[in-house]
Structures are given as structure tokens and as C-alpha cells.
Amino acid sequence: MATQAQQPPHLHLAELTAAQFLDIWKHFDSDGNGYIEGKELENFFHELEIARRGAGVDPSHAAFKEKMKEFMANFDKNADGRIEMSELAQILPTEENFLLCFRQFVGSSSEFMAAWRRYDTDRSGYIESNELKGFLSDLLKKANRHYDDKKLNEYTQTILKMFDLNGDGKLGLSEMARLLPVEENFLLKFQSIKLKAEQFDALFTLYDKDGNGYIDEQELDALLTDLCEKNKMDVGTSGLVGYKKSIMALSDGGKLYRTELEIVLCRDPTL
Fold first, then answer.
1. Measured in whole angstroms, how far is the alpha carbon of residue 44 from the centre of its chain?
2. Is 0.85 topped by the overall pTM?
């Protein structure tokens, strides 16, 4: 974790390696919550201004606040007042645009899940780290990006550093989904609905009436309506349609399995 005594990585705005991108991310996301926000965001923008102009602007000055407001309007795509990893990938010139290359191939939730499901064959919500190299190789081929074994190994190690924080050799769906474009990230749409494990169990059992371990699209309609009413979410008919579309991207042939729905709705998935 970064401390106040540490100097920020130099934002030289030349092409960054994937590893340098990660260093910058880890420095400014100092509390490790997956976002650059609050004071972290102010510090990041100040360093970015120095890199761009060769001089900083006093953060207390009105001009700084106005420039920061314009900056957020351009890059904070979901207008939540903070920067996510996929948004930062658009700001910093990552080498070979590695993260944007990911987004180019996996441009939608359904494409993301199709690629993910090829490796997460048991629908556990994880892929093993030894499968990651194949996953990334497929990704780069689909995106028509040329690479050698050295570069593929670097990318693999960078993703492991990003997402296998406890070193258990597993990469979680909920973590990897951060690389999706904000508007396509199905997890972000359900941030305000985070159920406890027992609440989720009761809800899923209620709608999985035949106990086959999955619910279909019709059952999902009723489940989402119930959830929105209980959480006093006034999303309207069009909003529910959007929610359903996002969540059905997780489905396999119209079947939404328990473990996949749990990742989206449960506060602490028991995977």
C-alpha cells in the first residue's frame, strides 16, 4: 500500500508497459478498493497536469477544480465521481494498449462471458492462473494483435499481479470484469443490491422452484421486480429491461446458474 512518503510514479505520458500501468494504478488506488476517488483522484489529476504541462496547478485554486471537472466529464463514463481501471486505461497510453486491446475483443458482457466460460467450465466463478496464458493468447488472436512469448508472459504476470492478490492461483470473475467497458459491466449495475449469503439462498430457492440449480428468463423477471421493490429502486420498465439484459449476459443458453447470479447479487459470494 502506498504511503504519503512515497513519490508517485512518473506520469511521462509516453507509452507505458502493462507493468508500469499497474504501478501507477496501485499507487493512486492507495486503499486498494478498486477505484481512484476522493483525495486519491485529486492527487492523480495533479500529477497528470504536471506531466501534461510541465507544471502543476494549486489544487485549491478554482482553475484546478474546473479542469478536473472537465477531465471527469470526459473519462468518468458512468458519472460516479471516481475512476476505475477500465477508465484509466483510456487516459494513460499503455504499451500496445493492452487493456484497451482486451476491451476491443471483449466489448460486451455476452462476449466476456463467452470467453470466460470457455475456461471456467465448472461455473465456479474462477479460472486457474495456469489457464490465464491461454485465455490471453485467445484474446490477442481475436483482436489481431501480434505478440511473442516474452510479451505474453509479461501480460500474464501483470494480470496475475492485478487480480491474484492472495496468491491462491485463482482469478475471480468479479475482479476480471473490471476490465470491461463501464457501460457493459454487469456487476456495476447491481452495486446497490448486495445480499447476505442467507438472503441470496432464500431468494434463489424461491425462484428456482424445480431445484435444478438455474432460473430462466421468465423467472428472472419476477426475481428482479421483487429485488427492486424491496430495495426501493425506482428503475421503471425500461430500467428493468436493461438490468435483465445485463444479467442474462451471464446465462448459458438462457439458463442463469446459481453461482453466476451469486457473483452479481451477493455481498460475499461463497465460491
1. 20
2. no
